[in-house]
């Protein structure tokens, strides 16, 4: 990077530095990280590439600037009282520094100002017409969050409903079996983990929440939003680290992360991440082990061309893999006692087990033809194998005892995704265009789905006897699946980001998807005996952003998506019309305090139609029907950033999700399950400024969730509101860091959400602690 000019002007207070950063084409670089080394002063550049650092004590400093895709730069700087240098600076592009810059800027900052997934173009969040929130690696580290469930509550308006892969976003349940692309990896479909698992974060650099239906880019997904994992990439600089953690209930975790170049030319880069964890639970008999391995390679052909291969393998062995929750007592008057049964009790048997093999391979090719045209091709393959047995409740609790059923499941699932898109930047007069044209082909389903449901024993809840709880193989199954399924999704889309001057941005997208699927029975004991899927449709997206000043934007957006039904079986009354979501959203974003704090305010309404519900008749007890649907509306406010020694992430969300018509699903106006009206989250970390305590950080957080209906068909089944407080203490010195996190400090007894029925529900973790130690080897 080269400095073009430096000017000075007087100021009566302490020193400040202001400037603007551009690239070789003299275009502004937004989102560049600007810091003064060995201080807590830092900021990011705005949409015009400008930055400002104030309140600087006179003295000598080193100014450090970095941004994705550009060579990091440092410059000695002398700040005198009343003197404010203005810097015009130019960054040089560097393919080899790409991943290294990503990591260096995310290690210490909560604030992330761009999201490649939201528009596939690296547009600054300030100019993105959608509510997007990003959890950086610094937040994951400070929270000691090792699964998506453990970080979900830090997102405004999101929560984990239970200990499985089941979440609530904007009032909608996001759950992998029903929402195939709810979880993305680097903006590509193909969830590595099954719905019974908490997604692991061993190789995750940051986690992005894109609120609302996002079908224009990603096809089907939860109407409330999608979660995108940004994985750690190979770096050009040699690095290695070891992390160890110990915690309550026998928790132990160890991981290593090695990265660097192969050879002196630094064309071939590698990264190897491996981890192991084990844990028990506050509930009886629950145990879990995870093994995770993630090697990756990047080859840099030249400045504009690269090839990346990333492999993931995760093995999980568990006793009681599904978290079926804890018991709830039903009173005679129809009300519920949520504190009657002890925490440790579970409906499952000690003989239950789960064994899961998850594997994925992702090959990404990037080629920059010239400054205006870029091509990206991604191939992703995922395979999930599950061998699983489980016990579930049948009927209601009577006299502190419960009847149970036994599930035995063996399934082998796959997803093959091809994504290709070209990005072209051009101008028509004074109007700028960034055009993306892309296509997707996804072949997914299962080669084996062997499921059996049989009656099991009744147990006393307080004194369970598990004798004979596993039915004999000769007993016929009451419900049975034995089939295979293949679904082919072909989609194409075009998107144009239009810039009219510096203040007005327009986003126009249109996608077409075609689904073709078939389920084939493999034996006579398959209950459904076949199912076919035929669906297609257009998905539009329109967004408008206006920046009245350089660091404030207002936006409006119209989003749609459609999801094929998970069942179109003729025996159940199918085929059924496609589920459709339509969202209207307006909001405002601002980068405050010299761009060190980002704030977002959004108001939205989501209409969701054609939800399947049971509609049995005397002739057909399995009949289903599609109803008008639901309406979710509300608002969110969130702030994220770093104010000198204080790092914060906080927000408030209001949501009202109700049925819009009366049917067998429920009555008009009934609240949707697991959808609280109010959610509040705060987490803050303060780095002590005193020299004697340098490296010490104190953190605290709170989460509030208002009452929520546990079952749509029973509006009296209402989980009480809860408030959970956490805290942490950390110390960092050179390459070494140690921290202690304490969760649920008040040992609050609370339920997070239900799966089905009024007998069981997800129970939040009681008070627990974790001790983590990290060491940077080199």
Automatic annotation (TrEMBL):
Chloroplast is among the record's keywords: no
Residue ranges of every copy of the TonB-dependent receptor plug domain listed in the record: 125-226
Keywords from the named record: Cell outer membrane, Ion transport, Iron, Iron transport, Membrane, Receptor, Signal, TonB box, Transmembrane, Transmembrane beta strand, Transport
Major subcellular location class: membrane
Membrane topology according to the record: Multi-pass membrane protein
GO annotation terms (biological process): siderophore transport
Record's GO cellular component terms: cell outer membrane
Cell location: Cell outer membrane
Single GO MF descriptor: signaling receptor activity
Keyword Methyltransferase: no
Domain TonB-dependent receptor-like beta-barrel: 302-745
Pfam assignment, any one: Plug
InterPro entries listed in its UniProt record: Beta-barrel_TonB, Beta-barrel_TonB_sf, CarboxyPept-like_regulatory, Plug_dom, Plug_dom_sf, TonB-dep_rcpt-like, TonB_sidphr_rcpt
Similarity annotation: Belongs to the TonB-dependent receptor family.
Protein name, UniProt field: TonB-dependent receptor
Biological classification of the source: Bacteria, Pseudomonadati, Bacteroidota, Cytophagia, Cytophagales
């Amino acid at each position: 990077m080269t400095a073009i000019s430096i000017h000075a002007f007087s100021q009566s207070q302490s020193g400040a530095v202001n400037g603007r950063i551009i690239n070789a084409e003299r275009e502004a670089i937004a989102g560049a990280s600007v810091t003064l080394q060995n201080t807590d002063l830092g900021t990011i550049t705005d949409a015009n590439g400008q930055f400002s650092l104030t309140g600087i004590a006179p003295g000598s400093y080193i100014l450090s600037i970095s941004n994705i895709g550009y060579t990091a730069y440092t410059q000695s700087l002398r700040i005198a009282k009343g003197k404010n240098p203005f810097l015009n600076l130019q960054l040089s592009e560097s393919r080899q520094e790409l991943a290294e810059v990503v990591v260096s800027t995310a290690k210490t900052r909560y604030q992330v100002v761009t999201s490649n997934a939201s528009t596939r173009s690296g547009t600054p969040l300030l100019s993105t017409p959608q509510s997007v929130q990003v959890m950086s690696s610094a937040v994951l580290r400070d929270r000691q969050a090792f699964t998506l469930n453990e970080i979900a509550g830090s997102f405004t308006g999101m929560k984990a409903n239970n200990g499985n892969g089941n979440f609530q976003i904007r009032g909608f349940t996001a759950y992998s079996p029903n929402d195939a692309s709810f979880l993305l990896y680097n903006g590509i479909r193909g969830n590595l983990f099954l719905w019974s698992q908490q997604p692991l974060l061993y190789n995750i650099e940051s986690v992005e929440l894109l609120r609302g239906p996002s079908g224009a880019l990603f096809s089907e997904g939860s109407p409330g939003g999608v979660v995108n994992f940004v994985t750690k990439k190979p770096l050009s600089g040699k690095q290695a680290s070891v992390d160890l953690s110990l915690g309550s209930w026998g928790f132990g975790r160890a991981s290593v992360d090695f990265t660097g170049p192969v050879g002196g030319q630094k064309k071939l880069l590698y990264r190897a991440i491996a981890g192991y964890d084990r844990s028990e639970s506050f509930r009886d008999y629950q145990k879990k082990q995870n093994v995770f391995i993630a090697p990756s390679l990047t080859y840099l052909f030249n400045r504009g061309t690269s090839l990346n291969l990333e492999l993931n393998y995760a093995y999980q062995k568990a006793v009681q893999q599904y978290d079926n929750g804890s018991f709830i007592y039903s009173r005679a008057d129809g009300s519920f006692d949520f504190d009657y049964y002890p925490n440790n009790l579970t409906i499952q048997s000690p003989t239950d087990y789960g064994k899961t093999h998850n594997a994925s391979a992702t090959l990404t090719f990037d080629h920059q033809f010239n400054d205006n045209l870029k091509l990206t091709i991604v191939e992703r393959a995922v395979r999930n194998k599950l061998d699983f047995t489980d016990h579930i409740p049948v009927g209601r609790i009577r006299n502190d005892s419960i009847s149970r059923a036994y599930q035995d499941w063996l399934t082998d699932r796959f997803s093959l995704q091809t994504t290709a898109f070209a990005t072209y930047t051009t101008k028509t007069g004074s109007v700028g265009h960034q055009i993306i044209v892309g296509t997707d082909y996804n072949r997914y389903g299962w080669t084996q789905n062997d499921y059996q449901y049989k009656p099991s024993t009744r147990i006393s809840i307080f004194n369970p006897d598990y004798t004979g709880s596993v039915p004999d193989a000769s007993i016929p199954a009451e419900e049975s699946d034995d089939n295979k399924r293949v679904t082919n999704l072909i989609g194409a889309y075009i998107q144009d980001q239009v810039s009219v001057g510096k203040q007005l941005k327009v986003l126009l997208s249109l996608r077409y998807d075609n689904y073709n699927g078939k389920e084939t029975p493999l034996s006579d004991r398959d209950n459904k005996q076949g199912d076919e899927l035929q669906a297609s449709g257009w998905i539009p997206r329109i967004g408008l952003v206006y920046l009245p000043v350089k660091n404030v934007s207002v936006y409006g957006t119209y989003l749609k998506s459609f999801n094929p039904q998970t069942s179109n079986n003729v025996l159940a009354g199918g085929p059924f019309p496609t589920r459709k979501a339509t969202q209207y959203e307006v909001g405002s974003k601002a980068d405050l305090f010299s761009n060190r704090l980002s704030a977002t305010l959004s108001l939205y309404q989501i209409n969701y139609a054609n939800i399947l519900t049971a509609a049995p008749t005397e002739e057909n007890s399995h009949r289903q029907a599609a109803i008008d649907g639901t309406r979710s509306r509300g608002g969110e406010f969130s702030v994220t950033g770093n104010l000198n020694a204080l790092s914060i992430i906080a927000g408030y969300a209001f949501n009202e999700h109700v049925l819009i018509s009366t049917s067998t699903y429920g009555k008009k106006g009934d609240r949707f399950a697991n959808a609280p009206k109010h959610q509040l989250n705060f987490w803050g970390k303060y780095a002590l400024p005193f020299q004697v305590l340098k490296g010490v950080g104190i953190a605290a957080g709170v989460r509030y969730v208002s009452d929520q209906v546990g079952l749509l068909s029973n509006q009296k089944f209402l989980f009480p509101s809860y408030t959970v407080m956490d805290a942490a203490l950390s110390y960092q010195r050179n390459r070494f860091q140690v921290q202690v996190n304490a969760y649920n400090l008040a040992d609050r007894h609370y339920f997070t959400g239900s799966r089905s029925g009024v007998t069981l529900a997800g129970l939040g973790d009681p008070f627990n602690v974790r001790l983590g130690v990290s060491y940077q080897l080199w």
